[in-house]
Amino acid sequence: MTDRSEELLEAVQSARAEGRAVTIAGTGSKAFLAESSVETEHGRLLSTEEHQGIVDYRPDELVVTVRSGTPLKLLKQTLAREGQMLPFDPPEFQGLGTIGGAVASGLAGPGRPWRGGVRDAVLGVKMINGLGEALSFGGQVMKNVAGFDVARLQAGAFGSLGVLLEVSLRLLPLPQLEQTRVLERDAEAALSQLRSWARLPLPLTGTAIFEGRLHLRLSGSEAAVSAAAEAVGGELGDDSLWAGLRDHSLPALKSVLLACAQVPPATAAPAEDLLIEWNGARRWREASTAAAPYVPFGPDYGRYRCLTAGGNETLAAYQARLKAAFDPDHLFNPELTRADLAA
Amino acid sequence: MRRAFPAATFPCNVRPMKENAAEQAAEATSELHPEAPTSDAPDPEAAMGSEAARARALARLRKQLPAAALLTESAQRKPFESDGLTALKEVPWLVALPGNEDQLKSVLTICREEGVPVVPRGAGTGLSGGARPRADGVLLGLSRLDEILEIDLENCAARVQPGVRNLAISEAVAEHGLYYAPDPSSQIACSIGGNVAENSGGVHCLKYGLTVHNVLGVKVLTLAGDELVLGGPGGDPESLDLLALMCGSEGLLGIVTEVWVRLLPIPPERRVLLAGFPTLSGAADAVAAIIGSGLIPAGLEMMDALAVEAAEAFVHAGYPTDAAAILLCELDGVPEEVAHDAKLVERVAREHGAESLQVAESEAEQARLWLGRKAAFPAVGRLAPDYYCMDGTIPRAALADVLERISELSEEFGLQVANVFHAGDGNLHPLILYDANKPGELEQAEAFGSQILNLCVAVGGTVTGEHGVGVEKLGPMCGQFSSAELEQFFRLKAAFDPDGLMNPGKAIPTLTRCSEVGGMHVHGGRLPFPNLERF
Fold first, then answer.
1. Quick one: average pLDDT of B522-531?
2. CA of B411: how far to CAs of B68, B382, B400, B406, B432, in Å?
3. Among A5, A199, B38, B108, which residue is least crowded by beta carbons within 10 Å?
4. CA A176-A177-A179 angle, 5° bins
5. ipTM
6. Rounded distance between C-alpha atoms, residue B135 and residue B131, angstroms
7. Roughly what angle, to the nearest 10 degrees, separates helices B101-114 and B51-64?
8. Which residue of A has its CA nearest to B476?
9. Whole-angstrom distance, CA of residue A264 vs CA of residue A267
10. Which of residues 274-293 of B touch A (CB under 8 A)?
11. Residues of A numbered 11-50 whose beta carbons fall under 8 angstroms of chain B's beta carbons: which are they?
12. What is the mean pLDDT of the segment spanning B285-307?
């Protein structure tokens, strides 16, 4: 539980003075998503791993403020003791990961369409920009329209705009009850079933369609969950499915190189899709069958997130200028910048 | 009362903030990083462009836009002289009302090439002067781009033009059992483009989020004429999340030309509870206990005794006038859940000393209970010739302390204040009562308001929860942000608008202004309210 912000600030300032780029990392649990591993970048590693601690947590505010190097596991345990959770349910690759890495990578779990993504939960950040300035944006309150929303912009920016020091996050109460239901449905039938339910206020917080089955996660009060379970039918399923889906460790996805796509949820299901989640909005298939909008995913392809295809050069130019507005000397994560933010 | 709009629809008769003279004037500039790059754009608060350039721009615009889309006569331009912040007026040099995207693009291109500033305007209901025109610029009205382009029932989404009214979206999809969740109080008039620009809230934010949480994508035209498609019904935007950045950017980065909104199923069950408390702290503790119990109400509102008294006298909603504070709690969802939650809220309210409790199950009863809250601003407006509406946000835990301090300030300034509070999300609207005809009273009200906003920042909150900075809160922004942070905002703006012509002089105060007004920057250990806990 140490505050290393001074050391981190000095490290960025001296990197800047020496014109030396830095690679920002926590535990390095997501390094496999990037082109280069933390080990090979050791000479210029800027580690937030020791910058730990929960700065402020008041459960009845539904807000936590936490230093970026705090282990995800520890944070989640602390929140769970108060009956609360991170709404975006970030992956814990190899059981590791820090909250700073979770925010920077912008990866959200299977509840994304209902509970929101990382950016939806970010309320405020303290960060160091490429000029070596410690800055604070947003705050610890839900409603805040003072200044540009620089805090949410950090979600999914992979540290390209600066080093996160602290993040304030909106929380959700843990549901009283969660239940997994499994229905025998092929992909097309499952999607059509989801469409027919879309306009009903079912307490859905997860869907997964694969291997001829539709898996549903229901969350809420006991009364609501049991009423919904009766309405959707099917069999009781295995709750551990959702953590596997979140951490990309399901056997169905494990053995192959993958491509993924985000699409409007009601899009028809091609036979190549191995798995469809997010109420139909996110789809996975083997990389060898990838064609637009599917993009190969993972280190072999230099892709870190499953995003909508459809960016173009114009947008990339604005992205690059925005990057330069925070980090004019390209100090931060240059290898990411090349692939993801190049003009 | 000076009001430009019917009171029930546009509740805040806001006045401009005049900044306090200040002690820490030098501080803001001394923090300036010597090597920080600044935008080459001209001073956004000074006059821009030349008369010759404007004449050239007008001649070119006349070739590209139909005559009806350009308002040049002073009588035509006068109605656009302010937005909902009616105290700040400026007749625009020109009003352009493009009827399609091509015309819109022409306006932007010509303005950029001729160096003419552009002030975008939706329905003009904003409360912070974000759409206040400039005498040297074009007021770009988007009201004629008002088509609902697509309703995608299968994906529960709609694609609309920026001039579409907020409520019109819900009305258009109601027959399908769907609605658009964010409901700012001006929703019958305000437009979705303006909602995106302000990241508008409403009374249901705690459960359903702000505009940023309910917009799936936007199409933006920058001043350079570049079209950026950010997100959409198919998912998250590419790379840096410019969609989130656009929300609340107050028209400083670009013009939103299309919006994809998320549609939600209308909840089958709704219940409203009203609890009267003998003390403010009892009500505040009940709010904390409700949220702490793991329940997220659709709405949770608090009113203090003066606001209750005013509302009751105005609309006779049946509120307990002997209570020091009331809580209004709306629950929605599946019937089983609502029934469960209602019992929990009742129990928590009683445990925290609620002396009266009403539960409305029928729609008519619910409407009655909401009526007092919805009429609160105009009701308070009847108590005095003028009132000044504040929009700070505070962590809920600070509520009791902040209200106590506001009540002390009320005595110091000799001005009454009624408090209306979106208790669920910490957004506080103190309404300061005054009489502008009494010499000095307006200045007193503004000084009082400025102290309240400083107080909000000191306890870890913000100077604006949902109304935006506009021009009204440029001064208080100096207290919330350091020079380096403001400079970062300007560099960010320059990435989209290098010429500094998009809504210049709004939302972000210049360092010069901050050094002049002497923003009270809050530094650890030198808090203006040391008796208050800070978090």
1. 36
2. 54, 21, 17, 9, 12
3. B38
4. 165
5. 0.95
6. 13
7. 160
8. A146
9. 6
10. 288-289, 291-292
11. none
12. 93
Q: Are B112 and B501 a contacting pair, CB within 8 Å?
A: yes
Burial class (CB in 10 A: 0-12, 13-18, 19+), B51: exposed
Place of tokens 């700073």: A100
Which B residues in the span 422-451 are in contact with A, Cβ-Cβ below 8 Å?
422, 425-427
Nearest Cα to A302, choosing from A337, A251, A262?
A337
What is the 8-class DSSP label of residue A250? Answer: -
Neighbours of A233 (CB within 10 A): 9
Tell me how far CA of residue A65 lies from CA of A2, A169, B319, B401, B446, in angstroms: 14, 6, 38, 21, 33
Crossing angle of helices B335-351/A222-232, nearest 10°? 180
Question: pTM for the complete prediction?
Answer: 0.91
CA B190 from chain centre, in angstroms, equals: 11
Residues A163, B397: Cα–Cα separation, whole Å: 30
Pick the closest to residue B307 from B387, B413, B424 (CA basis).
Answer: B387
- Which of A288, A335, A278 has the alpha carbon at shortest distance from A308? A278
Q: Is the backbone of residue B359 left (phi > 0), alpha (psi -120 to 50) or beta?
A: beta
Minimum CA–CA partner of B174 in chain A: A199
Amino acid at B214: N
Test B427 with A137 for CB contact under 8 angstroms: no
Tell me what percent of the residues of chain B surpass a pLDDT of 70: 88
Q: What is the DSSP letter of B504?
A: T
pLDDT of residue B40: 54
**pLDDT tens digits for range B397-440:** 888 889 999 999 999 999 999 999 999 889 999 999 999 899 99
Alpha carbons A225 and A239: distance in angstroms, whole number: 14
What are the tens digits of pLDDT across the range B65-119? 999 999 999 999 999 999 988 888 999 999 999 999 999 999 999 999 999 999 9
**What single-letter DSSP state applies at residue A291?**
-
- Preceding omega of A293 cis (within 30 degrees of 0): yes
Chain B residues lying within 8 Å of A141, measured CB to CB: 393-395, 425-427, 460-462, 465
Please tell me what DSSP assigns to residue A141: S
Separation CA A213–CA A237 (nearest Å):
11
Residues in chain B: 535
Residue of A nearest to B491 (CA): A325
**Cα-based torsion angle of the residue sequence A36, A42, A46, A52 in order, rounded to the nearest 10 degrees:** 100
The SS3 of residue A215 is strand
Residue A4: strand pairing partners: none
Q: Degrees (nearest 5) of the Cα angle B263, B264, B266?
A: 130
* Distances, alpha carbon A111 to alpha carbons A83, A107, B346, B373, in Å: 17, 11, 30, 34
B411, B403 Cβ separation under 8 angstroms: no
Q: Name every residue whose Cβ is closer than 8 Å to that of residue B523 and which is 6 or more positions away in sequence.
A: none
Q: Does A85 touch chain B (CB under 8 A)?
A: no
Within A123-176, residue ranges assigned H as helices are 150-153
Short-list B446, B439, B447, B400, CA closest to B423: B400
Distance CA B457, CA B464 (A): 10
Task: Tell me the mean pLDDT per 10 residues along chain A, length 343.
Answer: 94 94 86 55 80 95 96 97 97 91 93 96 98 96 94 94 97 96 97 90 94 96 90 96 91 78 91 94 89 74 57 87 96 67 36
Residue of B33, B296, B488 lying closest to A173 (CB–CB)? B296
Q: Does B249 contact A at CB distance below 8 Å?
A: yes
